[in-house]
Fold each of these.
Amino acid sequence: MTHRFDLRVYYEDTDLAGIVYYANYLKFIERARSEWIAALGVDQMALKRAAGVVFAVRRVVADYLRPAHFGDALSVVSRLTAVSGARFEIDQQVLRGDSVLFAAEVTVVCLGANGAAARIPAEIRRLLAQDLA
């Protein structure tokens, strides 16, 4: 299954040439992941309070393919590709219409209060597994 998050490029997202600054693509895909997790029914702040765990990005492999510009309407498409006991992997693309501008493979890990890897709570793994199917 895929999740779609729409956004518009604001002036603050761009450099002097009106092109999206490269680091802002990471912000765009982070927002999309947060919205995807929320759409699954996961309240990350409640998860932290109740189970003492949080999600953190462990690895990003990114390809910058085409520039986005001030005023562009973009979509971030996210697709879960793998789930294990303490992590999940997600492919994300930033699109303008049908054109892929940016693509990333992201590994997200579950961390306990001490900052060490922790198992994803069973209920969350179940929700993720349903999204993977």
Amino acid sequence: MKFEEFKLNEHLMEALSYMGFDEATPIQEQAIPKIIEGKDLIGSAQTGTGKTAAFLLPILNKLTEKHDKLNTLIIVPTRELAIQIDQQVEGFSYFTHVTSLPVYGGGEGQDWETQKKALTKGAEIIVATPGKLISHLNMGYVNFDHLQHLILDEADRMLDMGFHDDIQRIINYLPKKRQTLMFSATMPPKIRELARKILVDPIEISIAISKPAEGVMQAACLTYDSQKTPLINSMISNKPELKSILIFTSTKKKVNEIARGLKSKDYKVEGISSDLVQSEREEVLLRFRSKQTRVLVATDVMSRGIDVKDINFVINYDVPGDAEDYVHRVGRTARAETKGIALTLVNEDDMYNFSRIEKLIEKKVQLVKLPKPLGDGPKWSIKPFSKGGRFSSKGRGKNSKKKR
């Protein structure tokens, strides 16, 4: 379906043309008409399928003139996602008078004053993280009297991060008569429960829940921990065509360790985690986006906040503990119908978790062999639960100890 078929206003169509948007994705095709009609909506679609445009375009279509009143509140789990959505608002509304502002923590004192002004005297669209917005609400000056739209983006991640009570508290400040939209990559029971509380007779749209995009070539390699960094070095050192590589690990501690192990005189490697202050994180992401940095090592908290075009290669340095996090990590490549590679390094302790991922995505991931110079990795063999209640791997033993 072409965007012109939605009959959006001419200013939006001009921006879409300038940005190269022509064909709508499935989530956009189904959501945009319903949002324009004013329906509440709960939308589930995998990462990278165009959810942000699906809710921004119909809202912007209603905001053709400058109102100087807070019209739309978008709540997101992380500051990176807040910045990303605000940038997309700027792009789509380039030829309009609509104003937006991200509200998140970690900035300087002047940021607070800018946010306060927007929340009291009017930016039409505010993109906020729950904690920072509540800090402003506690001061008593936030004006939601004219708010017409509430959007919860990455709702499942917000609940995973413990923001349920914060979201409920924010909603208590909002007008009861409003349009509410909820978007989530996955749809666990806790999301449906929240939806029942805050949405009114919602339209439900579900697009390919919890499965990586078709353009992702998925593979896994059985490795001992000591083989992981040498494997990555061997894979990327002689492949200059892989210009943008994103490596995920589950802990902040590992970020710097991995980045140090991958340092090269031929290309730049950087790490990013919540240990960096916001300005440093933005600078790291800017260098990665502009291809000054070839390899970026990140934690899971960044998996939904990194919106970088043309990421060629995503590597899961370790298997995520939550099977759904795999989808979000892998979703950083092959965005907008492009192609990409996702490789997961599986040690002997992670085999059970990886089998849960394959069950979730309903697909057996191809296993690739280690290069011969690195020796043999562990054998695939899992035993889900031992008598003590914890899973164990049959692959442990004398050979495993030698490899460590």
Amino acid sequence: MHKVVGIGLIVLLIGYVLWIATSGTSVAPSETVVVNSDTARNPTEERSFEIVTVLGFDAIPSIENPRFVNQSIADETYDPDELVLGIEIDGDARAYSVPVLSRREIVNDVVAGKPVAITW
């Protein structure tokens, strides 16, 4: 079992690297930030931190034209304690799963004929 999981993780990593390489998204170069330390103890000490950008600009695609299910199917599919972001405009109500939003971060939708962007 451990060997299967290990191979699966390796395949996932290779797939992620290939996705980054072929997505046309460039990874930004790293930056260095210099922070002055506590000047009361040592006024000349500076600390440097390198900021590494893992995902490039627009590397996480938004959800376009989301599909919704009726309440009975949602009750069977989702955990009763699952967090959602909700919106209601002119009687048109929607719920967006926070775990899904944590992976995709933005949903472009139309609610009651009005375009909305749901972000997390």
